[in-house]
Design goal:
The protein is mostly helical. The chain has two domains: 48 residues, no CATH class; 189 residues, Rhomboid-like fold (Up-down Bundle). Helices cover 58% and strands 7% of the residues. It is built from eight helices and six strands. The strands form three sheets. The protein has a two-stranded antiparallel ribbon. A two-stranded antiparallel sheet has the order 3-4. Helix 4 packs parallel to helix 6. It is elongated.
Length: 253
């Protein structure tokens, strides 16, 4: 070994020590259970990497390949409903003319796809857009823009389907619109993916649970102040996002 590579930190005294020793030469504390296996690489002896270290490097390389990608899904999820709202306000049309879901409806199944992107108030759009900006870019870096967009459209549409089923059973005439299912789906999927990623890498840095819960509470309270927002669409969208995030982690492993 021509030179010693100092890249192991002693937990007892905080000193950097060689990766080839089992005890700290400064305080005598145990650094590792056994000395690492050595392998010859480029004419020098280096510590043989474990499977866990190789997995970390592969995951870091995959994350780096998406670092420079533009967040197309994030932009689309915010820009499309914003443009639709501007057109509706400019033309003076009704909410039902711009994709909102009516309960009951005849045969306009396409409203399940458009209703998550139809908003009745700017405040509602701002709250959902803020959640999208905070959580969707992280999903895009890990899953890709296309997969993320499909995932969140599914959260919004299936959330609307669940809300329609509940409200139809009640036998009331109601208008449902907005993307609280998209927002909660994004938060849930991001939380599950990041939590499992940190668990696999055995890192102490995890998602801020308190911050996530505050965001969830804000989105859940939107139906209290916005009549067109439906609590069942939000809950269903969040559940779908959590399941999709779990499935994504299993596929990535």
């Amino acid at each position: 070994m021509s030179e010693t590579e100092l890249r192991v930190v002693c937990k007892s005294c905080g000193a950097e020590v060689s990766p080839y020793v089992t005890e700290c030469p400064y305080c005598g504390a145990r650094v590792r259970k056994r000395a690492p296996k050595l392998e010859r690489r480029d004419g020098t002896l280096e510590a043989k990497k474990t499977r866990r270290e190789k997995r970390r490097e592969r995951q870091a390389e995959r994350a780096a390949t998406h670092t420079d990608d533009r967040p197309w899904a994030t932009v689309a999820l915010i820009l499309v409903p914003a443009i639709a709202m501007l057109i509706r306000i400019g033309t003076g049309g009704g909410f039902e003319d711009y994709g909102a879901l009516l309960v009951p409806f005849q045969s306009e199944w396409w409203r399940f796809l458009t209703a998550p992107f139809a908003y009745t108030s700017i405040g509602y759009l701002f709250a959902v857009s803020l959640a999208i900006v905070m959580f969707v870019p992280g999903l895009e870096r890990r899953l890709g823009s296309v997969a993320t967009l499909i995932l969140l459209i599914a959260c919004g549409s299936l959330g609307m389907f669940a809300a329609y089923g509940v409200e139809e059973q009640r036998g009331v005439l109601e208008l449902i619109a907005g993307g609280n299912g998209v927002a909660l789906g994004a938060i849930a999927a991001w939380f599950v993916v990041v939590r499992n990623e940190n668990k696999a890498l055995e890192t102490e840095d995890g998602p801020d649970v308190i911050g996530v819960m505050v965001c969830v509470a804000v989105i859940l309270l939107v139906p209290v102040v916005v009549e067109s927002a439906n609590v069942w669409s939000g809950l269903a969208g969040g559940a779908i996002g959590a399941l999709a995030g779990l499935a994504a982690t299993l596929v990535r492993r």
